[in-house]
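DATA SHEET
Item: assembly model
Revision: 1
Owner: S.N.
Input lines:
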Amino acid sequence: MSGTFGEVQSAELSAAAVQAPRANHLRLLEAESIHILREVASEFERPVMLYSIGKDSTVMLRLAQKAFFPAPIPFPLLHIDTGFKFAEMIAFRDQMAKDIGAELLVWRNEPAIAAGTNPIALDTKRCCGLLKTQALLDGLKHYGFDAAFGGARRDEEKSRAKERIYSFRDGAGQWDPKNQRPELWNLYNARVHPGESIRVFPLSNWTEMDVWQYIHQENIPVVDLYFAKERPMYVRPAPGGQETLLPVEQAFVAWPGEKPQMVKSRLRSLGCSPCTGAIRSDADSIPAIIAEMLSFRSSERANRVIDHDQEGSMELKKREGYF
Amino acid sequence: MSETTAVQESTFSIQDFLAEESQKDLLRFSTAGSVDDGKSTLIGRLLYDTQSVYEDQVKSIEGKGTTQPGQIDFALLTDGLRAEREQGITIDVAYRYFATDKRKLIIADTPGHEQYTRNMATGASTADATVVLIDASKGVLIQSRRHAFIASLLRVRHVLVAVNKMDLIGYDEAKFRAIESDFRALLSQIAADTGSPVTPHFIPVSALLGDNIVHRSSAMSWYDGPSLLELLESVPAAINSDKEPFRFPVQRVLRPDSTFRGFAGQIASGIVRPGDTIVALPSGRSAQVARIVTYDGDLAEAQAPLSVTLVLKTEVDISRGDLIASAEDAGTIARGCKAHLVWMDQQPLQLHRRYLLKHTSQTVPAYVTALDYRTEIGTLEHKRAHTLEINGIGVVSIQLPRPIVLDKYSENRATGAFILIDPATNSTVAAGMVREVVGRDSLVGTSSAAASGPVTGEERRRRWGHSGGELHLTGSVELIDSVERALFAMGAVTVRVPALADAVRISQLAAAGLLALVVAPSNEEFLKARVGEAEIIVETEDATAVTAVLELLEENGLLAAHNEEGSEYSI
C-alpha cells in the first residue's frame, strides 16, 4: 500500500471542481447515497458504519466523508474481524481510520476464535455463522447500535436485489423478506422499537462497475490485494477444467505436501483468506481492473466459496442476520 | 499502488471508455406484470441481450424452469427469493441494473396482481419511465389498466407499452393497432382522473423470441419504430428541474466549529447559486446564499438532485426539517391537504387516528379527517367508502396540527410526496401524493385580525372550521370518548356538559361557536347521537361508528362537509 489518504484534497483537484459537476450517473448515485447517510445520522440514536475494508466499504467511507464535510463523520466504524482477514487488509484498515480521523471499533468472536473455529475444521456455513454473523450480532448488541451501514449492493446477488435501502431487522437481527417495509421516493421509515434495528445500504443502487469507476474518478486508495502482482498461491484444479488459486496466508489451508507457486494474480473481492480465491491477472491499475472486468464473464462473488454452499444460500444467511 | 503512472501506461482505449462512461446519465424505469404475461422473460431477455448477465448466473439456471430443453428460462434470471421460486411468482420489488453504450439503467421490477398494487406504486415512485406489458393474444386486461393508473398517479412520464407475444397472433398489425387504440383511450380517461397525463409509446414485441426487445425485428415490417431498448435509451431521464422553484429540505446542520454553520441537504428541485436570496420556512426569514460547500470544493451553482451544504451570509435559525426555498416562490405553509393515498398496510385506514407523516426530512403528526372517495382502478369509478384496505387507493383530507410546507405532487415530485407511518407498529402504512394544499394564507393573518368589537360566532366558525351547536350523546362511554377524541383531533372546539345541565347555558355555548357535547353516559353497548331532530344509533366500536357521528354533524351543518369549498380550511 502506498500513497496517503488525504492526497485527494490536493489543490488542483479542488480547483478543478469549482464548476457545476455534470449530473452523470456517478454524481446521481453519489447524491442519493449522501442523502441516505445524512438521514440515518440524523434520525437514529446510535448509528455505526460496518467497515469491511473492501472496495465497497471504502467507497461508502468516502461518501460519509463527503456527506458531513467539513464536519467529521458523526458515527464510529465497526470492523467484524474473523481473524482470517489478510494482514494487508488489517494494516490498511488501521491506516485509513488514522488518516481520516475516524473512530474505529473492532469486534471479534473471541470464544469461537479461541476454540479454533475455521472453515476446514467446520464447514464454511458454520464458520461464517460463528465468526461473521454471530460476531456482528454480538458487536451491534454490545454497543447498542440501532442502525448499521453496510456496503452491500443489489447487483451482487439475486436475494440482494429485493433488499430495501433501510432493511428492518427484528430483535434477533433477522431479516424477513416477506415482511419488508414499503420504500417510496427517498422517504425512509427510521422508526424502530427498542431492540429492533435497521441495516442501511447506501450503495444499494451502485453496480460493481460504478464502484470501480468512482474509485477511479475520485482517486480513492484501495487495498493492494486488488492489484495484480506475483503472489504465492496454492493452485488447485476445479470443476469444468477451471482452477482455484488459494492465497498462502493461513497454514491450515494447505493440503499435505502441497507447495505454493508464484502466480501473477489479484483478488476481485476481499474476504477471509481461506475462502477467497484469487484470479490470474495482469491488472495492476484501476483502469486495467475496469478493462479486465469488461472482458470478464463471471460475476464477482463466483470466487467466494460461501455463496455456493447451498441453493439460495445468501438468502438463508441474511434471514439469520448476516449482511 | 501507483494509479497515476498506471493510467498513462494502460494501452487499449480504456481511457476512451472511461471518458464515455463519465458522460452517461441514469434512467430509472419500472415494470409490472404477472406470471403469464411474460414480464420476467422480457426483463431476462433485456439483461441477456445487453450482456448484463454473467455466465455463472446463466449456468446456475440452465436446465431449470419451464422452457424447452436447451432454451434458457429467462424468467429465472430475475426471480430472486426462495418463496418466489417455489411459487413461481414475483412477490416484491426487485431492482436490476444494466448499462448500454448510451446510459445506465435501473429497473424496478414489480408484480402485477391486485394484491401487489402497493409494490407497483413503490417501484413507480422513483421511475422516470415504465414498461407496461400487454399480452397481444388477450388484449388490455385489468392488470395493464392498473399499472397504467399507478404510473399516471405516481407521475411516471413515459409509458412504454410493450404488446407482447406478437408471435402468438401471427405478428398481426391490425390486432396491434386495435390494442393501441384501446389503450390510448384508457390513458386519456386515466389522465382525466389523476390529473397527470403520460406520454405513451407502443411497441409490438415477443420477449420469448427477442423481437423488438433489443434489436428491431424483421418479422414485423409494418412497424418502423424503435425497439424497446432503443426507446429506453432515448426517453429523457427526469433530472432536469432547473426551471422549477428552488427547494432544499434541510437534513442536518453542520457545525464542526464556531466559524462554520452549514445546512446539509439534497436539492429537491431548481438551481442555486451564491448570492441567491432564499427564504427559510416555516420561519419565513430570508437570507442570501454565501457558499455552496462540498468535499470537492465550493460550487458556482448546483441543481437537483445534488447533495450539497449551503452556507448563508447572515445567521438564520434553521434546523432539520425546515425548507430553504427561493424567495420568489417559496411554497405554501399547509395546515392540511387533499391527497391521493395508496394504502399499504394490513390494518385498514382509520379516520381521525393519529398517524405520523414523513415529508422530506421531517416527521409530523397527521390526521386523516375524511375519505372523499375510493377509486375502483379497473373502472375508474369513485366509490363512497369509510376506509381504505390494503392496496386501496383514494382521495383523503389530511389535517396537520403542526403546519409544514407542501407543494402539489403534480408540481413537485419531492415536496409533494409523503408517507404515513403507524406510530404503534412503526409500519409504513400509506404513500401520499398532495393534490391540493389547504391553509394557504391562513397563517399570514386573516380578515378578523383587523376587525373590532366582540368576537362573533361567525368569526369563530371561520377560524375553527365548524359551527356552534349541540350534539346529544347517550349511551356507551367508550364511544362518547371516541367521538370527543376524534373531534379534538380535528381541531374542533368542544365542551362536554352533562345532559342535566341548564339548557340556557348550553345554548349560549352553542351560540358562541362551541360544539357542546351534551352527554348521558351509560354502560350500554350502543350510542345514540342526536343533533336537533336528527338521531342515529351506532353500535360498533370501530372508526365507522365515529365516522357516522361526524357525518351526522356534517349533514346538519355543524361540521363543514369535507368537500365543501369556502371554509378557511376543511377539517
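QC remark: The first helix of chain B runs from residue 3 to 9.
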